[in-house]
Design a protein that fits this description.
This protein is mainly α and 394 residues long. Among the domains are: 69 residues, 434 Repressor (Amino-terminal Domain); 73 residues, no CATH class. 72% of the residues lie in helices and 0% in strands.
């Protein structure tokens, strides 16, 4: 089920419930969502939190994306992004066909520089540009890897698959993101790099986080940590280990396990104290700032919105931080502020999210749900508020 024009999450929940001939009381009982919360969500009085969406998806036996309406096809078409997805899908399909005789790959250094540039570009929020250039690079890197058969070649190919995952997940194509990750693992195994193997588990765990399958995601995190123990010591391993703990903290928060979430945050903070700010290590932006940013996310996942808003207020983001990470953080802070009634401030942070990475923000579920919450509050907001809604397509 794709998003319909002017559709909203509450309406989709109601439609799915009625298709299954369930009363609101029956769905509340099945999902263990409070009855009043479900009714208000369906009516659009309150927005749907990620935790609530995941519980309803399990009860309705659908994917989370079916409830959120992703991918947002109408907006993708308007932005001419939908036509860029199929070439990426096709480039991922030739991974095991060996060298293409019609492709003459450039030297490794040039391919490496392009792969790094795409990692940087997608984190700068340049999704359309990256999506347009990526398929050709994947095809070229595929032939180069099969021809040379070197560790460097396979890891470069794994990097292009990682970028395909980034693009697909940001645009809401969960199936394509899963395929890209499986290709990343395939290439990383041939490159025999334990750190990249740990990163694959981290990114795969994020797909299960978005799907509301926290137990599987947690198992992947633990597997990733075990794999990293086999890697050579040093800053790369410490950064990946700390990042895995941050992912696990959000996973535990969304599963409403406060003790485990705090434990993982403490471990991440310990590693960040060793690594310092490490924005460019695998472009994960790990470090003390990322720990603070994730603390905001965890508090929000635990429904501690007052604490989340306070933690996010005044948090200074380094200038060299990726625009995509800044945009995501502003959206998280806006969500917490919306729930605590700070409507004007919440909208100001939605504007910051859009300014930092407009292409990402337009397709960001937290941005959309927060906007819906502000709209439902029925309080006078700036004229630019309706303009923002038109830009989102809601």
């Amino acid at each position: 089920m794709h998003a319909l024009p002017h559709d909203r999450t509450g309406a989709r929940i109601k439609r799915l419930r009625l298709e299954r001939h369930l009363t609101q009381r029956a769905l509340a009982d099945l999902s263990q969502v409070p009855y009043s919360t479900l009714t208000k969500t369906e009516q659009g009085v309150i927005p749907a939190s990620p935790h609530l969406i995941a519980k309803l998806a399990r009860a309705l036996r659908v994917e989370v994306a079916t409830i959120t309406g992703q991918p947002y096809v109408t907006e993708l078409r308007a932005d001419e992004l939908d036509v860029l997805i199929q070439p990426i899908r096709e480039s991922l399909d030739v991974y095991d066909l060996g060298s293409d005789p019609d492709v003459k790959p450039r030297p490794y250094r040039l391919l490496h520089d392009d792969a790094e540039a795409m990692l940087v570009a997608v984190r700068a929020g340049e999704i359309k540009q990256t999506a347009g250039q990526l398929p050709a690079l994947i095809v070229e890197a595929t032939t180069a890897a099969h021809t040379a058969g070197t560790t460097e070649g396979w890891l470069l190919l794994a990097s292009t698959y990682r970028t395909a995952y980034d693009v697909a997940s940001k645009l809401g194509f969960s199936d394509l993101a899963t395929i890209a990750l499986s290709r990343m693992e395939w290439a990383a195994q041939r490159g025999s790099d334990a750190v990249v193997g740990g990163m694959y588990r981290y990114m795969r765990a994020l797909t299960y986080l978005r799907a509301g399958q926290y137990r599987t995601g947690d198992r992947l995190i633990r597997m990733g940590l075990n794999i990293l123990e086999q890697a050579d010591g040093g800053r790369r391993r410490d950064v990946l280990t700390g990042q895995l703990h941050l992912g696990a903290a959000v996973m535990s928060g969304r599963a409403q396990d406060k003790a485990r979430a705090e434990g993982h945050l403490a471990e991440a903070e310990r590693f960040a104290g060793v690594t310092g700010e490490a924005v460019d290590v695998h472009w994960l932006a790990f470090g003390p700032t990322n720990v603070k940013v994730h603390r905001v996310s965890v508090l929000a996942e635990l429904d501690q919105y007052d604490d989340a808003a306070r933690a996010g207020h005044g948090l200074t983001i380094p200038k060299d931080w990726p625009a995509s990470r800044r945009s995501h953080h502003y959206a998280e802070v806006a969500r917490a502020q919306m729930w605590t009634g700070q409507l004007d401030t919440a909208f100001a942070n939605l504007l910051r999210a859009r300014k930092a990475a407009p292409q990402q923000a337009r397709y960001h579920q937290t941005v959309r749900e927060t906007y819906a919450g502000l709209e439902a509050a029925k309080r006078q907001l700036p004229d630019s508020f309706l303009s923002y809604g038109s830009w989102l397509g809601v």
